[in-house]
Amino acid sequence: MKLSTTIGLVADFVAERFPVTKMNFASMVAKKEVPVHKMSWAYYLGGLTLFFFIVQVVTGLMLLFYYEPTVSDAHASVEYITEYVSGGALVRNVHAWSSSAMILCVIAHLMTTFAMKAFEKPRELVWVSGVILLFLAFGFGFTGYLLPWNQIAVNATKVGLQSIEEVGNYLPGALSELPRILRETIQGEASVGQATLSRFYAIHVVVLPLMVMGLLGAHLFSVQLHGMSKGVDRESRKKEKFFPTFMVKDLTVWGVVFLVLFVVALCLPFESFFAYPLAEPYNPLGSTPEGIKPEWYFFFVYYPLELLPFWLIFLVMNVGAVVLLLVPWIFRGTSRKTLRTIAIAAAVYMVVITVFGQSIYEMLKGQ
Amino acid sequence: MTMRLRSCLSRFLLVVPVLAGCVATADAYSEFQKFVQTRSGRAINCAMCHANSDGPDGAGFGQIGGLSPEEIGRLNQARAAFEPGQAVDSPILNKFGNHIVATIGKTRLLEFRNRPEELAAALGTTSDLDGDGIPDWREYLDGTHPLKKTDGNPWLLFVNNLSRYRFHVIMIVFATVLTIYGLANLLRGSSEVHDATQEPK
Amino acid sequence: MIDSLLFVALPYVAVALCVVASVFRYRSDRYSYSAMSSQFLEHRGLQWGSAPWHVGIILILAGHIAIFLFPRLSASLLSVRPVLLVIEGAGIAFSVLCVAGLLVLITRRLTSARVQAVTSTMDLIVLAVLLVQVVLGIAVAVHYRWGAAWGASTLAPYLRSLVRLQPDSSFVTDMPMLVKVHIVGAWVFIALIPFSRLVHIFSIPLSYLARAPQLVIWSNLRRAERALAMKVAHSRRLFVRGAAATVSGGVLLGAGVLDKLARFFHGPALSDSQQAEVMESRLERIKSTVEQRELELERLKSDFIRIGTLEELDSKKGRYFTDYEMRPALAFRGDDGMPLLISAKCTHLGCTVASDVSDDGKILCPCHISWFDVRTGAPDPGSPARAPLPHLDWVLMNSEGAIVARRMPDGGTAKEEADLAGTSVYIAKRRGEVA
């Protein structure tokens, strides 16, 4: 009796989120409408993320033709791509720029979706899958960072993984060994080496893409199923057709973004933003060069880690992740105005810590 | 006869301090590094001018301890290049390091240790070893690598590459605009067909 | 003689004829300024003939005119090989499109009874001239590559000389026959304009691009059917426009990218010296990996590992070595003349500590700026690192392999001989680990 009720509830829940009656071309494409209001621009962010993801898949596959995931050859093969392979430098640069752009779009997409309360029933699962996709995107960033096997890559990865072990200091008794074991499991050996590279390579190239494809499929499918959320409190009177009006606009945005990406990748090497010693091959016996930092999209957790006690950041991050996943239920009754304020505050924090993190750090450390 | 004697002597004189005084020569040219680091605010290392990023001391690649007799010969030749204009191919230096010695000579280079900012002017305005459009003197002052095409002041790199690839950029703009315009029309067309066929007769 | 007739006299005559006759025709019979559409007589063939023909010829003429108007700009553009290939490729593709369209139009004129009824001899002449002209153009493009490039420097000056009224036929007299015929054909074509349906060129329908389609429909259709027909026609127009733009965009993109893409997958063609360079740098990396592996093996197998002689150690500049756990460590010479071995793996987040000792006897971890005292290993109070860097045990052995001094686990030193000259520093496996 009880079991059957539970099953029934679950079935109802799923049926409501994936209504079979709507699964047809007419309601998913032909009749779909996009509201027009002052937040309409946010409807393009998800599509942009998809665009960058496609670019990542294509350029990533191309890089796979030349990349060799061994400690002795990884850096040499990357160098070979940039220096000798026709168009290799462009492909690699597009991959690098597009990864950053993708993460930027994911974050902006998350914030605007939150501000527009697009997670309301029946879109809870869209939100949850989106948050998991965000984590996967960070996973892509973290694992991909190691692959060129240069100084900044290996050292930053070491630092990142070592912070897992920090947790052990706050755990009692036998549990305190757990983080170390976890770190070694991720690393594959006592310190970052060939085993780590192999694992990260497998995760970056096979595991994460598979997970993303599955989840992304569900995410996009349910977006089409439920249509665009209204986004503002009062149902906007003006609407445009998704097909073809919105798609044409979306396509135009993709075109412009493609051009910008192409020009930037062609003319501005991603590596020129950090000092050249960091791009040298990793030397396990030499000293760590100055300026080891994670990618900019980890600054929001990196600088607080530098400045504040570890346990505090650890706690905040974990609570943050859980809250993020449970947003559709926690903020069910919150007004859009409040949500917008929260989103703006979060955006301000992200921008300030990403742009001025280094200056704040230096100011507080008195250097 | 005297020639051979002299070269033997000089080799002896050079090898001895090398073996005995690794530490003594370790920071011999660090004035340049320190100057560039303070001026540019970028972390740099010995790889700007040397073959090995940890500098010439040690037994690794491009370090004095690991040189073959032939390479020691080239090293000595480079060390004796006091006047500018001599062909220099020191195994412990990279192309830029050799270029400096060849351009200004060892004597002036040693003088510049006290005035490292003047090295830039002495390098001349035209030389650009990596061909990225930023002259070597500028890369030296900016703390970017004069032999790496992908390293340089980002803004300058962008501007130089943009003018270098302007045709590609124009082409890609045309191609993209055309394709997007075409696809948009195809989308509109198929939507109209869909509408037309859906309408009640 | 014949050259100046064909390339100086003919052009002026043709243009004059074209202008005068066109004006005359416009003034006397304005309503004949039309393409004289036969769409309502036959539309299927027209659709497949007219559209490709017009799309192709307009683009090709635009290309010709652009090169004549901006010879220097186009010469510099066309000096880039991919651009040249794209332009030439597109030119040929559109010419073929023209020919296909023309053939359809000619067949239509010759086979459809309805159309034949309104076909004049002039129409057939015009079609023939156009066909010959386009085929000649293709022949020139194929036989004398790359016309877009040399045309800018030979034919453009010729036209310019005509416009400036200082005709100079020397630019074309040495041209191959094919090119000459193509040029003559062009002047003939211009002369024909006012006497045929070609006059519709002068009523360039620019507004066509924006306005609703013009349809010739039998007026006895019902309103709904008419609306449907309008819609279908409009969508067809969108399709044609879309396909043309997508294809030309794709061609442009493909021509610019395909060769690079092909070369990307083919792999670089390196010279021997480049290959040697690549090999050398790879070998260097492999060697350092081998060294690393050898270190590991040594640490697994031996109880003592040599770091260097005691004399080699310095109090200001550390010597890196790798400890039994494959972690970096630094060897200094202490104030007492004894070795001072300290871990170089920062206790904060595991970066490698730098080897230079500051004036107050400290070494720096550059990652997060932690200073460690070399003698005690303790970090500065404000440093991110909390735990001290541990010191490592060492032994001194003489050349016979006998231990003459060692560091005790409590940090003290045990000396067994006074004379330490010529001894070497070793690290020892911890007691429990010694097999």
In terms of topology, how is this protein built?
The complex is a heterotrimer of chains A (367), B (201) and C (435).
Chain A: H1 2-17, H2 25-30, E1 33-35, H3 43-64, H4 74-83, H5 88-115, H6 124-146, H7 151-166, H8 178-187, H9 194-226, E2 239-241, H10 242-267, H11 299-307, H12 310-325, H13 327-330, H14 336-365
Helix pairs in contact in A: 3-5, 3-10, 4-5, 5-6, 5-10, 5-14, 6-7, 6-9, 7-8, 11-14
Chain B: H1 2-20, H2 22-25, H3 30-40, H4 69-79, H5 95-112, H6 118-122, H7 136-142, H8 154-164, H9 166-198
Chain C: H1 2-28, H2 44-69, H3 71-78, H4 81-111, H5 113-117, H6 121-143, H7 147-163, H8 170-173, H9 177-192, H10 223-266, H11 272-301, E1 304-309, E2 319-322, E3 328-333, E4 339-343, E5 362-365, E6 370-373, E7 394-397, E8 403-407, E9 413-415, E10 424-428
Antiparallel strand pairs in C: 1-10, 2-3, 3-4, 5-6, 7-8, 7-10, 8-9
Helix pairs in contact in C: 1-9, 2-3, 2-4, 2-7, 3-7, 4-6, 4-10, 6-9
List keywords for this structure.
heterotrimer; A: 367 residues; mainly alpha; 14 helices; 2 strands; 2% strand; B: 201 residues; 2 domains; disordered N terminus
Q: Radius of gyration of chain B over alpha carbons?
A: 27 Å
Helix content of chain B: 55-70%
Write the element-wise H/E pattern of chain C from the N-terminal end onward: HHHHHHHHHHHEEEEEEEEEE
Low-pLDDT residue spans of chain C: none
Number of strands of chain C: 10
Number of helices of chain C: 11
